[in-house]
Amino acid sequence: MGTHAHTPTHIPVAVIGGGQAGLAVSWYLGEADVDHVVIESQTAMHAWASKRWDNFTLVTPNWHCRLPGHAYDGPEPDGFMTRDEVVSWLSDWLTTFTPPLREHTTVSRIRHTDTAGFELTLTTDDGDEILTADQVVIATGGYPLPVIPPYASALDPAVAQIHSEEYFSPEQLADGAVLVVGSGQSGAQIAEDLHLAGREVHLAIGNAPRVARTYRGRDCMTWLADMGLYDTPTQEYPGGKAAQEKTNHYVTGRDGGRDVDLRQFALEGMRLYGLLTGGKDSTLEFAPTLTESLDHADSVYNSICADIDRHIATIGIDAPEPTRYEPVWTPDEEPARLDLAAAGITSIIWAIGYHPDYRWIEASAFDGAGRPMQTRGITQVEGLSFIGLPWMHTWGSGRFLGIDRDARHLADKIIESTSPRRPHLLSTHLLASGQ
User: Fold this and answer.
1) What burial class does residue 125 get, using C-beta atoms within 10 Å of its C-beta: 0-12 exposed, 13-18 middle, 19+ buried?
2) What is the pTM of this model?
3) Neighbouring C-alpha atoms within 13 Å toward the C-beta of 75
4) CATH classification of 10-144+356-433 is 1.10.10.410, yes or no?
5) Where are the domains of the chain?
């Protein structure tokens, strides 16, 4: 997939970001013959190969993987693709169409104007150029700026520090113990990766919930899909905005999929701590939240199982008997401090998430926290839209399961506005093709 030699100075639609979300929109625009360009700062789908660790696997079943014209059809629909298998699956998708893709080009600024729609500053190795567009789709991911706490710079420089997106394998780290900070999906799985490799692991956990991998004979995420939770619009989702702000449940697809049980890791020698609140030199401080955090994660685990129980009873499904998780370990104490040098810790991995960063977009489309104000990707700024955001429309948004639907909806809106006399062209095409 090469870089286009030339992009016109004006184009009807510019899609910023060449990941699966941006390219899904491009797929539908291409089917409707809408002139557009996809602008990617590196190469298409690069993050899958460059920002996942070596033993990464999906945490959602393979059957969730659906992109326009390309659903998973391999031998393990209930399995979990590895990083390299995902890269291969996405590469196969790119052979099925030819997006108007311009790679190695960074959009350093987007300015909304009253007369020309949008003015984009493109930065390449050859310098800057200006492109104008009637519509712009932002597909750069939900939260691209890695979070590193401000006190990190005050810690002992002898201890190496990396963000979770820079972690690939235990072998890249210096000999010695490792502190992982954060127990969301990445933190919990990286801690497991190090633990299975025989490294001494210290884990500072937050308020992330957890979920059973399988329950009553099926994968929990398959049960939840059957229950409609991935299809429920955000405004109707139980728990409202508070539920959407929570960290994703930790679980793993490794070795065919299993629970991630931090209590079991503790039994096997992993050291657990509550919320990391600060540090200086070789000393870290923790809040006394360890017991509460473990109990909360288990309560969510059991609550989800109970929801599945009710679904099974309501539908009358023949399934194995229900169970409840019972703790296999409880903390004897709440560690308040950790001396990195005394514990032999030589590396810290920050797995505490990302911040939004849309400072390069000059348009009145963001709230006080810098997040897009949108409804199903559409903002109140005419012509500006987003794709691939978590909870953009449903819990499935931002995941493979929801990208196709979100991209189809957004593309349909773009097609209607660019071709008002053929508002149902895409829908007609989809009906004809059986999608």
Assistant:
1) exposed
2) 0.91
3) 0
4) no
5) 10-144+356-433, 147-350
CATH code, 147-350 = 3.50.50.60
Reading the chain (435 residues) residue by residue, the pLDDT tens digits are 444 445 568 999 999 999 999 999 999 999 999 999 999 999 999 999 899 999 999 999 999 999 999 999 999 999 999 999 999 999 999 999 999 999 999 999 999 998 879 999 999 998 999 999 999 999 998 667 899 999 999 999 999 999 999 999 999 999 999 999 999 999 999 999 999 999 999 999 999 999 999 999 999 999 999 999 988 888 787 766 655 556 689 999 999 999 999 999 999 999 999 999 999 999 999 999 999 999 999 999 999 999 999 999 999 999 999 999 999 999 999 999 999 999 999 999 999 998 889 999 999 999 998 899 999 999 999 999 999 998 888 888 888 999 999 999 999 999 998 865 444 444 444 433 334
Where would I find the H helices in 380-434? 400-418, 425-433
Between CA 362 and CA 332 the distance in angstroms is 52
Closest CA to 220 of 260, 199, 251: 251
392, 373 contact by CB (below 8 A)? no
10-144+356-433 with 147-350: one CATH topology? yes
Please tell me whether residue 313 adopts helix, strand or coil conformation.
Answer: helix
Rounded Cα distance, 36 and 135, in Å: 9
The DSSP symbol for 110 reads E
**What six digits make up the tokens of 428?**
């007609």
